[in-house]
Amino acid sequence: MPAAEDLTLLIQAARAAGEIALKYSGPTAQRWDKPDGQGPVTEADLAVNAMLETMLPQARPDYGWLSEESEDSAARLSKDRVFIIDPIDGTRSFAEGSATWAHSLAVADRGEITAAVIYLPQRDLLYTAAKGGGAFCNGAPIRVAAPAALNTTKVLTAKPNLASQHWLGGAAPAFHRSYRPSLAYRLARVADGGYSAMLTLRRSWEWDIAAGDLILREAGGVISDRLNKPLLFNNPTPLLDGVVAATPATHLELLQALDPKGPGIAGQ
Q1: 3-state secondary structure of 84
Q2: Of 1, 152, 209, 212, which residue is most buried, by most CB within 10 angstroms?
Q3: d(CA 131, CA 261)
Q4: The model scores a pTM over 0.90
């Protein structure tokens, strides 16, 4: 199936997901904590996931399925193409009543993302990309920020990533740090030029990163794991060894500053 046709399907699915999620009030939605410290889930996450798990496989019955809110199955590993879905990325943000949560939908073809959507319905932001077709926000082309010295750049990252053990010389570079709870939204903001980089040294679930991976690359950015290995998706254990996503120059500078023998950050 051509990536452009998959993208059309993902856009339809994302908008339908937004209609469902907006029927819930985040702070009053029923909420549970997942086992093993994997974070919260709400009735909105489950309702969106149920719709997507019906809609998307019906449209592409030969595709595999990987979603944060579905029980994983090894059956996806035998499929060339796989949906990789986070029904609501930034569930804590959703539950607190913030508007920075997103629907993250992607298709991986033999490990490479070929169609992707990140949709923030409360902010009316629809980020889209199909392989080779560029990246867009609400239909307008987007591009990563212009090159800049690292000490003047804006980087989206959590405070634990600045700890001394992760950096050569024992200190993180002097960049301007900001934070957003949704990894997908962080990647989208680098793609649209609002920030020069996003960085997480924590092991990251594929569904948080998949859509942003393609949108960032189609916008002219570079993305890798924390050891500068390319990201591949639909792994047996769907975890990535951190993520460094940035403009080309900033990506290089961050990797040169990171200690490759650093421990990373435990957990997901």
Answers
A1: strand
A2: 212
A3: 33
A4: yes
Query: Residue 218 pLDDT > 50, yes or no?
Result: yes
Residue 267: how many CB atoms within 10 A of its CB?
9
| Structure tokens belonging to residue 127 | 């980020």
Predicted pLDDT of residue 268: 45
Q: Are 83 and 70 spatial neighbours (Cβ–Cβ below 8 Å)?
A: no
Q: Has residue 30 got a pLDDT over 60?
A: yes
In the DSSP assignment, the letter for residue 97 is T
The Cα 46–Cα 43 span in angstroms is: 5
Residues 6+ apart with CB under 8 A from 122: 22, 99, 101
Q: Is residue 59 classed as helix, strand or coil in its secondary structure?
A: helix
Q: Could you give all domains of the chain from N- to C-terminal order, each with its CATH number? A: 3-141 (3.30.540.10), 150-257 (3.40.190.80)
How many Cβ atoms from other residues are within 10 Å of residue 53's Cβ? 17
Cβ atoms 203, 239 nearer than 8 A: yes
Segment 121-144 shows an average pLDDT of 98
Residue-wise pLDDT tens digits, 83-129: 999 999 998 888 888 899 999 999 999 999 999 999 999 999 999 99
Pairwise CA distance, residues 215 & 128, whole Å: 6
Decide if 109 contacts 80 (C-beta within 8 A). yes
What type of residue is 79?
K
In 77-203, the DSSP E strands lie at: 81-89, 102-109, 112-120, 125-130, 135-137, 140-141, 154-156, 176-178, 197-200
* pLDDT score of 172: 93
